[in-house]
Amino acid sequence: MRADTTAAMEKYRILCFGDSLTWGFDPEKFGRIDEDKRWTGALQKLLGEQRYKVIEEGQNGRTIATEDPAEGEKNGLTYIIPCLESQKPLNLMILMLGTNDMKNKFAYSASDIAGEMQRFLEKVQTYNRYRFNNAMKILLIAPPLISTEGKGSWMEEAFDYDRAAKISAELVKRYRQLAKVYGCSFLDASKVIKTSPADGVHIDAESGVKLAQAIYDKLKQENLL
Questions:
Q1: pLDDT band at residue 9 under the 50/70/90 scheme
Q2: Residue 159 and residue 170: Cα distance in Å, rounded?
């Protein structure tokens, strides 16, 4: 078989790296949203199976770059390079992190969380440059805003909702700026979806499908496919 024919048959590989919003945690049933209703699965459906492969890399509780002494093994920064090596070749990385970094126990400001994301993007883009020859494109997503509707829910012990709502809103502009600096595309999820009133943090199946459509439109718009 000719090399150019083989290359044409290879699927375009998309790594979706995130936390419980990517894993698909159901804020009402406390399980996992069905595969085709998670935004990753809905995106795969929009793209089709023939040419594209969507790779789910969501983890409940994952932070950008912080060790969690209570939950353990949640630091995205320490896991990302092994993940890239395991899943290569990669054409695109969709990155949505930051929600867990707003938890009370970390006491981070928006500036702190943006600093974490800067470290993360530096590490990824350095690897991309020297190991992937800049072949992997990146779409950075600012997570949907934490909502004060979650007050009184089971997540209230983890989040100061008033504070977290303000921080998540401020992160949007900081992430947008980081995307420009590090050559990433950018999407503000809060323009498309809202978190579930069940806990003010996670997204439901309906929002997952909406987010997938917004991501698909962005990928087409910016020629990332």
A1: low
A2: 16
What range does the domain containing 167 cover?
A: 3-219
Q: HSE of 131 in the Cβ direction (CA atoms, 13 Å)? A: 14
Taking 90 as the threshold, does the pLDDT of residue 2 lie above it? Answer: no
Pairing type for strands 185-188 and 137-142 reads: parallel
- Say if 158 falls within a structural domain: yes
Collapse the DSSP code of 56 into the 3-class scheme (helix H, G, I; strand E, B; otherwise coil) and give the result. strand
Residue 1: CA atoms inside 13 Å, Cβ hemisphere, count? 7
Looking at residue 190, its amino acid is S
Q: How many domains does the chain have?
A: 1
What CATH number should be reported for the domain holding residue 92? Answer: 3.40.50.1110
pLDDT in tens, 80-90: 999 999 999 99
pTM of the model: 0.95
Report cis status (omega within 30 of 0) of the bond before 89: yes
Sequence-ordered strand ranges (E) for the chain: 12-18, 52-58, 92-96, 137-142, 185-188
The residues near 169 (Cβ < 8 Å, ≥ 6 apart) are 145, 190
Residue 3 sits at φ, ψ, to 5 deg, of -60, -40
Whether residue 8 has pLDDT greater than 60: no
